[in-house]
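[job 4471] stage=fold_predict status=RUNNING
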Amino acid sequence: MTKLIYIADPMCSWCYGFGPELVTLLNGIPDTPVELVLGGLRAYNSETMDEKLRAMLLTHWEKVAEVSGLPFSMDALSHTGFIYDTEPACRAVVAARMLAPHAALNVFHAIQHGFYAEGLDTTKGEVLAKIGVAALSKSGVEVDVNDFLARWSSEEAISATNADFLQTQRWKVSGFPTLVLESGGALNLVSSGFARTETLVERLQALIDQTA
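[job 4471] inference complete, writing structure tokens
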């Protein structure tokens, strides 16, 4: 069996920039299964953001905006007492994956848009639940906000999210986004970091030819 494995974090700026490239690729290969593994970029961070970190992140964001052309709102890093912990957002994607596996990537992208383009605080469960429910609805899946929040808060979701982080570590993946082709039980790197759709297609085709 052949499938793609996408290892990423919804609060990773380069993953946000990579989103349209990935969507274009997947639209061209609709029959290829995609497994979404959450990376945990800054999972379990407990330190309030200071100006040094904020300035560093904004520099990264400006670069991503320049390369991708995507909108960024600097409000995301201006919430009072903001703690850049990516575990809650990752867990929201895991909750969506539990509720509707086929729609998990749509929820992932919706959280990215909420954080980066709208400046929402996607470390908050209530914010994530609203984003998740709206994205699921667009995918034809109707879920109540309270039900989504309950799933997000569950021990099952917490454990599953941590399992994704541990799997990422076992694979020795430390940079996001990472796209991998699994074929015949073997894992082959398609891309690590941002890449254009054309490059992804070329690398994917080369790997398929190589493993044929």
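[job 4471] summary: Residues 2-211 form a domain with the Glutaredoxin fold (CATH 3.40.30.10).
[job 4471] exit 0
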